[in-house]
Amino acid sequence: MAMVAPLVAAELHSLWVFHQDFRLYNAEIGGSYFFNMGHEVDWTRVVCLWVLGCGVPAFLTFCALLPLRRLVWYRWLVWLGCVGLWTNVLFQSEVALK
After folding, report:
1. Is 24:17 a contact under the CB 8 Å cutoff?
2. What is the C-alpha separation between 88 and 92, in angstroms, rounded?
3. What is the mean pLDDT of residues 53-64?
4. What are the CA-CA distances from residue 35 to residues 24, 40, 61, 63, 95 (Å)?
5. 35/57 Cα distance (integer angstroms)
6. How much is the pTM?
7. % helix / strand / coil in the chain, to the nearest 5?
8. Residues 79, 5 contacting (CB under 8 angstroms)
9. Distance (Å, whole) CA 18 – CA 63
10. What angle do CA 90, 13, 58 make, to 5 degrees?
């Protein structure tokens, strides 16, 4: 659950960016293609950035979920809150390139 929360947040953020069709390079999923303007994408770098980018939020989500491991409803509510938190963090960290 903890590892999936940042991935779901990145997917929601990317879907919204593609829906807006504005500044597509800000999308977490697929944004590196638009950032490189169609040039060759170094997939090793992309995978490493994903592991590092999702590792810290996943660890923090795990720490939030650990005390609730026996309380199913509360655990799901906290997990949804973490997805909302990471989605908000992604929206706040968008940049505008000139």
Report:
1. yes
2. 6
3. 91
4. 8, 11, 29, 33, 11
5. 23
6. 0.76
7. 75, 0, 25
8. yes
9. 32
10. 60
